[in-house]
Amino acid sequence: MKCERYRFDGSKPCDLRKLPCDSKADRVEKAEILTRTESNLKEMASLHDALYAEGREGVIFVLQALDAAGKDSTVKHVMGGLNPQGVVVHSFKQPTSEELQHDFLWRVNKALPPRGSVAIFNRSYYEDVLVVQLHDLQKSYQMARRVLEEDKKKFFRKRYRQIRDYEEYLYDNSYRVVKIFLHLSKEEQKKRFLERIEKPSKNWKFSAADLRERALFDKYQDLYQEVINETASEYSPWYVLPADQKWYTRYLVSEIVVKTLKSCHPAYPRLSEEAQAALAQCKKQLKDD
Ligand code: ATP
Ligand code: MG
Predict the structure, then answer these.
(1) 2-288 sits in which CATH class?
(2) pTM, rounded to two decimals
(3) pLDDT, tens digit, for every residue of 26-43?
(4) Does the Cβ of 93 fall within 6 Å of ligand 1?
């Protein structure tokens, strides 16, 4: 599987600047990739069907990226392979004042899917160690002085630990959390922003604030790398995917979804002998009707 190369589970360090933003290194052919994506979407559908019927394990795909990396279009595409009944998409925006009155995982817990379902998090609690850390937002939060007066490094090191612990807690409670970072190059981001400005149908996707964040592109890269290395684990890995070519990103995501669902070994529930006998009785009754 191509996605293996981009998987980080804590056993090797992730060096973002050495990882590709496009498909060149994988020497793939677009036409073949598109065909394989289609077949992955079909496989995904049948795996998801069994997962839903069985209802034993919940799966969460966390999508993180800088603006214009293709989070929305990835969500749209993956949804095409899943049964709408067993999937929820949750976009984590700037916290509301009610959310800010609680710990940072409060709103995440509320967004957890029931077991058997898949949740796609468009951004997530990782924003609480990314945008919050980069802009020092925690300083303006209403929290106890003992917390706010703590050394900044220590504060976020604790959050990394809390995230690791939370993901392990979820794993031990029959959830799988798989994190995907869409690795976009600075040049491609510029291209996509220009398109959002030039194409009226894409204007709504652009905001001037996006340029302010773009100015921090390199700082975000460094911070993402730190966050990925701090929170990659065997039970909750990160995938750092090339994001400059959407067709290739979608393919890799489809591989990851198939692989993750397979690892849950979903199987349709088998009826007990008693229930099977009752079913046979119903069949007979219907036939004699
Ligand atoms: P698009 O790529 O289409 O612009 P988006 O995910 O950027 O989608 P927006 O509504 O533009 O959606 O932005 C959501 C904003 O909310 C992001 O800038 C993100 O950093 C911010 N955000 C999310 N979670 C938090 C958080 N916990 N604290 C502060 N800001 C957050
Ligand atoms: Mg945005």
Answers:
(1) alpha beta
(2) 0.95
(3) 999 999 999 999 999 999
(4) yes
